[in-house]
Amino acid sequence: MPDHLLEVRNLSVRFHTAQGVVNAVNDVSWHVDRGETLAILGESGSGKSVSSSAIMNLIDCPPGEIHSGEIWFDGKDLLTLSEEERRALNGKRIAMIFQDPLSHLNPVYTVGWQIAETVTAHGRPGQMARDRALELVRRVGIPNPEAALKKYPHQFSGGQRQRLMIAMALALKPDILIADEPTTALDVTVQAEVLTLLEELQAETGMGLVLITHDLGVVAESADRVVVMEGGKIVETGTPHEIYHAAKHPYTRKLIAAAPGQGEMRVPDETAEPILSCRNMKKSYGAFDALKGASFDLMAAETLAVVGESGSGKSTLARLILRLEEASGGEALWKGQDLLQMSPREMGKVRRQIQMVFQDPTQSLNPRMSVHDIISEAWVIHRDVLEKRRWRDRVVELLEQVGLEASHAGRYPHQFSGGQRQRIAIARALALEPDLIICDEAVSALDVSIQAQVIELLGRLRDELGIAFMFIAHDLPVVRDFADRVLVMKSGDIVEQGPVRRIFEDPREGYTQRLLAAGLDPDPEVQRQRREARLKLTA
Amino acid sequence: MSATTAETTPAKPTPPAKRGYLGMLWADKFATFAAIFLIIVVFCALFGPLLLGDAASGQNLRARNAAPFTLERGFLYILGGDALGRPLLPRIVVAAQNTIMVAAGAVAASFLIGATLGLIAGYSRKILSEVIMRLADVIMSFPSLLLAVIVLYILEPSVGNLIIVLAITRIPIYLRTTRAEVLEVRERMFVQAAQVMGASTFRIVFRHILPVILPTLVTIATLDFAFVMLAESALSFLGIGIQPPEITWGLMVSQGRQYLTSAWWLAFWPGLVIILTTMSLNLLSSWMRVALDPTQRWRLEIGGKNA
Description:
The structure holds 2 protein chains of 2 kinds. By secondary structure, chain A is an alpha/beta fold.
């Protein structure tokens, strides 16, 4: 009889796929006690979500197969219980919240109904369920709770939706809450709030919290103990402090080294000439102003980071410069010519010089074209760049430049991992030998270690080829070691701009300070100080 | 999130050995038989009237409604005889020409026109798109057979006119599907990536959007094939489609209908051929959908054992 609240023992899960048997987790053991927060840290494909899926009975068998192991909860091995008994536990004793609350809330029901449903599904009367729903919505900090219960999921912001998911999960006062990447889709300031809320609720109810994450910052902020996973195995266990300062396993050390925001900051070249000067650029959708007059200069061969939370207008800015959307006003001078006034023909010529790398390489590469076709398409469109007989060699050259192999040219995008796909997208952007590459959240969808590699690649290309970058990101640490200058945006306005060192060490605007304070540092000590600073700012 | 998703697993170490399209066809046995059957049908359509034209129209009143599966009247009567004592087997072979011509012609014409208009309507957000859509609404709001009756009443009933009429009534199906798909695909990131690269509208539509929506359209077209065959038989039955002594499968079915209780084979055999043709087209189109999609192709390349 184990003495932990929840204990996973020697769990092995494998999946039968067309390519053969895949061992998703192999001989994994961990436990969590009452009032404790256990973080399961790993990158995509590490199997960090699989053991919690096994706990919640969410693994489809087949193709999945729980090969061996036990899951002890409350004196019983969950794997030996019937479907009926497990349903009674799910939601009531063990609850779960997910990464993307929008896809886990039903869009056609009000949130009040959905929270109440969790309660009535476990056999409580309707009135009691409604009272409980109101109490919960108030507790998770949704403004105007009575009215909120009658609203639909799309009427809330991302952070509020995650709060509602938490309310739903806590409806029956579970003993265990499993949170699978609960803050990955949220802005940094909202992320800090949600993590704080989880901590408060844990202190009130004494539940055990299992936090599945890829982010060392989240671990430093919230966890009592950490389990580091790689390739379906646990490589290391310990407190966040031990893991960060005395990691034993090389994988953990690599992960810590890859965390952004540790390197030397760059100093912008003061003598450079601007190649792009934007003045008072505006965009409104009806009565809503997405961009309220942005003015800035971008120098040749420099990296300008545009940082802001979702809805700040940073992507709109990029789309206006590229003429993917028409601006409502202002001008953008590219080497002296206004991009916003150009005819389609003139714009066609300029497109060669300004390229873009998108956030999600899975979507930005045509799934029906081979890598060779994707990269060489640029030369089909701009006939004068390269003669046809040199295409094959140049594709190979570009692939090698971004760290891929010549043999990859014949493959299709789905045969690559996320990081490799982003490299293909970068190679495509390089094919036209542009002067400026706009990266719209180009590394946000990637794992930390892959993120570091891609940023290193971009830095190398900048130094070797003298390309200027406009680097759009929501995450400050990512731009810290890469950018020359930083532009901070908030609700369609540029609130602050300056050299990277000035922004990070001496932020002048309150919003920039809040943004910096909300970022999570992988070092538990630094993070503790930061948390105090944050609480002071919000107080 | 879980380790099973294809995205998270690193690139396959060795891609399976590439097979040609014939190899991939062989990997799907149903599709192979479908292809063979369709080749036979096309062969009949091309050479049937030449080889068996006389046998198909020769009457033998002693063989009226002759039962199938006996060889006493010769091999041509193996499937029985019709109400005028004409052998069914050669009639089906000969009828293939008209049937396939009308069906393929109507489907191809409505496919081409519908898809083209759909691409225009989906990609241009201007008045043109509105005009095209309202035009489709007008055609759709009119019962298609009624339209056909009116048009064929005015025009001379002939194979050509029949194709035109059937094509017009089926255009909205392709038009609306294409437009809806284009509206979705044009917002995808890779279309924007092509725009950023400076690709022309023509290139974006034909290189990036069309290949994505083509499988859907081809699937609809194969289903439509059967519909068009039956619509043609309905028109023929009303006396405004193909007229005897010309024959089509649909016409044979409707002629055999009054003998269903006494001589089922009159309507059964041509009906069976219609079903088999449609089914073969369907099987082949679903094979094609897999074979043309790089993310699905492995199912055929590994030899079909897991497909």
